[in-house]
User: Fold these one by one.
Assistant:
Number 1:
Amino acid sequence: MKVTFLGAAHEVTGSATLLTTDRYKILVDYGLEQGNNLYDNVDFPLAPGEIDCVLLTHAHIDHSGKLPVLVARGFKGPIYTTVATKRLCRIMLLDSAHIQEQEAEWKNRKSKRAGTDGVTPLYTTNDANATIELLDETEYDTEREILPGVKICFRDAGHLLGSASIEIKVTEGAETRKITFSGDLGNVDRPLLRNYELPTPTDYLVIESTYGGRKHPERKDYFTQLATIIQETFDRGGNVVIPAFAVGRTQELLYLIREIKDRGMITGHDEFPVWIDSPLAVEATNIYSTDVLSYCDEETAELIRNGINPLRFPGLRTSITSDDSKWINADPTPKIILSASGMCEAGRIRHHLKHNLWREECTILFVGYQAEGTLGNALLSGVDEVRLFGEDISVKAHIMQMEGISGHSDEPLLLSWLSALKDNPPIKVFVNHGADEVTDLFAQTIREVFGWDAEAPYSGGVYELGSHVFCEERGITERIPERTQKQASARVNAVFERLLMAGRRLMAVIEHNRGGANKDLGKFADQIDALCNKWDR
């Protein structure tokens, strides 16, 4: 059994790991990279059609967002995930495809005016729909054989509705080995969701480290903290603009705001409006509002059993069309605006920042992780000016961050999760899904605290798993020398990756035709030769 790290290696986003057995090839997550990255990722090492199945930890785009690419290039196998993740992926992958198509359309209009070559979207709505058809749902805590000799079990990771850690048991000959992928582990005692489940004994472990080396600030009372920010901003006559991930964080905030309204914690601004300005967030809120008893915490479940919708309240308004969105800032009434994207890299939030950043009376409130290189990170770092839609915007608004509401476990919680394995330690721990230095430091912490063998692999790292683990390939360990160089070449690299995948798919198709009729094989060979003659340079 081998494990190959493809993405989220010494980086926070773009999760992708390949597990290879003596008979099967299993991919765990296939996500989009977000923000800037210090390292190139290796090219995908297989034709997508060679993959037997995919295991998906949760619906966030940095874990699921490239699955339609896989499907567009030949993957036809099942994608195993939880019931809630399947429901969320139905809307998130379609939304991502729509963004890919819109961006390609915008770039092509620009290219046409400049007389340069156009681009194609990374994937289309049709690709996303084809991916959704492959989603195969499973329940928590239920062992399931997905291939002969391969069993999986999903455990609640407490990070997002339906998020999971995945246990994989692989039998090769007379030996059975187990590898566990933590997925993204959630913070504890948050609104809506249950706390994470502890891991069961495993031979090998892959653990995230988003907040490795860090401890969340001492948590203030969520309701008082948020109510104070709202009250002070409204008293100044400003808006509270919250860049929030459409799925997960938006719903947590709605839960808090409903309770704040119920308790009458805001004075002088009765029935203040709260806008959800994101079609995706609106759809996700509908999913969170129905049939989630098996996923939510006991407090939320009790509300639902008593007929109370935990995410609905007077003054809640939704914006679907762009005209609705534009009207929000035309209305002078102090209000809360919840809009995506959570890191301010795209979406309607950028329009709200343009209209509110320069106003001293307003507050921009961050409630989630802001990756290095994103606009959200820059604002938290204290920049005086940003450029939006070709215009320089002064940063005069109050830039604030809500403490303790992170969706990820910090280092103490990660170590607490690991401590469940101290009586049956794993042979090897792999640390991924963290910033460059963080992954190495957290691996060192694991070695010091538990005395276990722990390592932070790089993209392209290949490890043979047995009674002892050894590394066959180290992967890409050199940083990109100039960030601008990667940005300039990103489109070229993406197109060349498509070409490589097409070549690998061709090899898989050739192999599938082994034993075919000589006449058909000869015709196939002639077609390939003609193609090579056309493009050989």
Number 2:
Amino acid sequence: MSNRLEKEDSPYLQQHKENPVDWYPWSDEAFKKAQNENKAIFISIGYSTCHWCHVMGERVFENQECADILNESFVCIKVDREERPDIDIHYQEVHELLNRRAGGWPTSIFCTPQNKPFFARTYIAPESTQDSIEGMGFIDLTKLISQKIQQNDERLFKNADEIESFLNHYEHPKEATVLKEDFYKDFLHQVKNNYDTKFGGFSIAPKFPQVNTLNTLLVIDKLYDDKSARAMIKNTLKNMIVGGLWDEKDGGFCRYAMDEQWREPHHEKMLYDNALLCELYAKAYLFYKDEFYLDIAKKTADFCLKQMSEKNLFYSARDADKKNLFDKKIQTSWSSMMINALFTLGSIDSKYNKMAIDSLASLLKTMYINDKLYHTTLIHKTPKIEAFLEDYAYLSKALITAYNFTAKDIYLIHAQKFVNTALERFYKLGKWNFSDGEFETIAEISDNTYTSSVAIIVESLFSLGLLLEDEKYTHFAFKTLEYNSYELGRRGVIYPKMIEQVLRYVKGNRVIKTSKDNLNKNIYKLASLKYPFISFKSDITDAKFMICGEKSCFANTKDIDNIDKLIFNSF
């Protein structure tokens, strides 16, 4: 007999509808029941293509003994982290606070009947392995928690109150420091300390691609002709392919490797990884002109277009265990990443430009309804969950890229509208919230699973300020960097995209103005320009290229090959 999850759209929640556990979706009904019946709350967070989520589902949630304990003594809530990233962000913070280390999925949270968390783990096996609390299995752990709740254990409830007070306390960053070009030197030094000189990458096993670090190294190489940055980029881009992170048989990039040599990939494939890596390899080709990079970028795009899309909309993931080959959930933020990659690739091969235009149109039609942007839905379903900061940020970036490569004003108009809404909803005095609804969470500036939404919205603000010649957008971008400047100067290695934006602020933006026809004819060469902070605008009618800074234009040329020299000589 199915439980309450049967009525939910989420593929992840649907996977658990036949569990013997009496699951609730995230709802007021569940929290009221816990309080009225004085039952502990168990919150389980995961996603449909997660290997260890499957393992816990099979070994714990389909285990009748585990289910009986949960049904008798707990109110159990299932959350899809991809559907509700705001909830996930909050409970990842809970896990880190309680365990002094980052969490992961599945996330297992235990709360008092008043919904105050007091215990957090990731995967929990059904049986205990040792006497300590860390080795306690799900059966023994839930029995112990149930007993302590029934006894109104004073220590447990006191700990829960203390944890809640920590979570509700937000410390503003220390005093601002001057945004300096030298920030990149500290970043580079820290990256070198983490770099695997033999196999590439920036960690021991498990080893993730860390696209944001590579992107910022690419910016550094473009600006400073840095041989060490170039070596780290090229070695990593090569070894991810020959090692096996790229799936030669089925196509696409796997999420991470379980070994240092990239030879044991974890076969789960996420849209965001493939989108960001597709764009990275395309940008590496545009700068280094190595056909190997272009081949990988095209193959990655083709994999996503053929195996992770339907009706010009992109699916969020493919399953690691191949039990459910497609999570047909559409997400605005992740789809926008892929569309952005297609526009970048389209500057090299025009067929991808057409695909990007079609995908962007389908995404807007599906997720932007009655002047309201939404976060996620299934194909053929009506979206219900409103957009978060990441959706506004990544969609705005994709729209600005679309404008740069097509010169269609409608894209810039949409981007301005979404950035304005993001400022109204999520920005306050340099700080950004990730969500502002029933569950308000602060947006991280660090690049974790993928690029920080704060860094992406800063990038869009700088671009809008330049293209619209409106200083208010540049002001908000600067205030965000200034607010976080102490951290950026101290630990840049965990904020690579923000470090890139610091360099953009310090070095300055450039815009190339030309005719629409001239832009279309020369888009490949324009996309190949060395200076990393360039936008394009087709608001003049002749065949010249006018090169401008943020407040004035300073050079004209008909020779596209002379543009980089004119830009670098302008500093």
